[in-house]
Amino acid sequence: xxxxxxxxxxxxxxxxxxxxxxxxxxxxxxxxxxxxxxxxxxxxxxxxxxxxxxxxxxxxxxxxxxxxxxxxxxxxxxxxxxxxxxxxxxxxxxxxxxxxxxxxxxxxxxxxxxxxxxxxxxxxxxxxxxxxxxxxxxxxxxxxxxxxxxxxxxxxxxxxxxxxxxxxxxxxxxxxxxxxxxxxxxxxxxxxxxxxxxxxxxxxxxxxxxxxxxxxxxxxxxxxxxxxxxxxxxxxxxxxxxxxxxxxxxxxxxxxxxxxxxxxxxxxxxxxxxxxxxxxxxxxxxxxxxxxxxxxxxxxxxxxxxxxxxxxxxxxxxxxxxxxxxxxxxxxxxxxxxxxxxxxxxxxx
Length: 349
Hints:
mainly alpha, 15 helices, globular
């Protein structure tokens, strides 16, 4: 208990310090950086319960889901061709970069591809566990370093490269409907436990997003208005968890492997900026910021937090990120895993 309280105090103070200094995404990056540095370079014991990470993801899911109004959901159908173009482009380049990574560090094909595809740390590791030729340690490092790079690089790029004028986004008025809230809670619980039962990833954040999108679209109500302090608490929960999750990564890296992973991610982030630029030029009604955060190879939670802080269209960005997540988990990853297993069987791996 004492170790947890110490970790919580460090995380909260780090968030407060980052906000006082005016650093971007203070309540996420402050706890993440501080706890990572302490765990990496000191012998101080830290602990963060999984339940708090889950609570943070659920709260963030509610915050994101509240942006899915009836109009926003209906507009998503018009964006499907752009979602498909962006997703296929990013996944295709990820596969090419995976092949390049294989040549650079002489890792197995399974390791290189599963580490390069931006499908999320937990999801890619689970898939890699089912393939004997995949190196779980390297896959974990590749996915973890990608999260670290995206969470640190992308937010700052959004600040310096572009912005959104105040009032450009339509702010929906919060309304309270007891019946709709009850229905939302019921649907959310059913969705969450249903996803958990079938082993679908990221249920903690996906269930509230989908629930609010469904209920608010059907009822036309805006059910939730999350206060700033609760959003900050959710970010602390996620940031502290990310910091501890990256513990010990530096001890396992070689210079060659680290350089290859960094190059892989720099090229991928640069390509997502290029795709965002093309779409923003092609579709002048949209802005670069929204497309860049939609294409960025980070997690839904991290990109949504960045969108909230920069004035991005949270519903649009989340819908693009969700489309890519579903495409990678349901289409790209199973195909890659099947091909790799066939190749391994032929080579006797």
